[in-house]
From TrEMBL:
<protein>
    <submittedName>
        <fullName>Ribbon-helix-helix domain-containing protein</fullName>
    </submittedName>
</protein>
<feature type="domain" description="Ribbon-helix-helix">
    <location>
        <begin position="22"/>
        <end position="84"/>
    </location>
</feature>
<dbReference type="InterPro" id="IPR027373">
    <property type="entry name" value="RHH_dom"/>
</dbReference>
<dbReference type="Pfam" id="PF13467">
    <property type="entry name" value="RHH_4"/>
</dbReference>
<dbReference type="InterPro" id="IPR038268">
    <property type="entry name" value="RHH_sf"/>
</dbReference>
Length: 128
C-alpha cells in the first residue's frame, strides 16, 4: 500500500508577516520582471542601494549580468548576504576607502564606481 502524502503546506498561509514573500517588479535590460523575496530581503536590498547611491533597478541589472545560470532571486539573496558579510569583515581598507558598516559612508555616485564593500560582495559571482 502506498504511503499517504500530506497535503503541501503553503508557507504564506502560516508564516508571520515578516516571512511572507513579497512580489515586486524591477526593470532588467529594459524589460519588467517580478521578483519575490521576504520583506527583510527587500529592506536589505534598499539599504545597499541607499549606501551605494544607486537605483534598485541598476543594482538588480548588475546582479543579473553576473549571476550566470543561477535564478535571479537566488543571486540577489546571495549578493545581499555577501554584501553585509563583506561590510562586517574586519579586512583593513585604505584610509580613503569605505569603512565597513559605518553610517558616514563615502559617496560612490560616479558611474561604474562602487564601494569596496560592494566590489567584494560581487566577488561571490566570480568563484563559480
Amino acid at each position: 500500500m502506498a504511503a499517504k502524502r500530506r497535503p503541501p503546506v503553503i508557507p504564506d498561509d502560516t508564516a508571520p508577516e515578516s516571512m511572507k514573500a513579497v512580489c515586486r517588479n524591477v526593470v532588467v535590460g529594459g524589460r519588467r520582471t517580478s521578483i519575490r523575496m521576504e520583506p527583510l530581503q527587500w529592506e536589505s536590498l534598499a539599504e545597499i542601494c541607499r549606501r551605494e547611491g544607486r537605483a534598485t533597478n541598476d543594482v538588480v541589472a548588475l546582479i543579473d549580468q553576473k549571476r550566470g545560470d543561477s535564478a535571479l532571486t537566488a543571486a540577489l539573496r546571495i549578493f545581499i548576504l555577501s554584501y553585509f558579510r563583506s561590510a562586517a569583515d574586519p579586512v583593513p581598507t585604505p584610509a580613503h576607502a569605505l569603512a565597513g558598516m559605518a553610517e558616514e559612508q563615502a559617496s560612490f555616485r560616479h558611474e561604474r564606481h562602487y564601494s569596496p564593500v560592494f566590489e567584494r560582495a560581487l566577488d561571490v559571482f566570480e568563484s563559480r
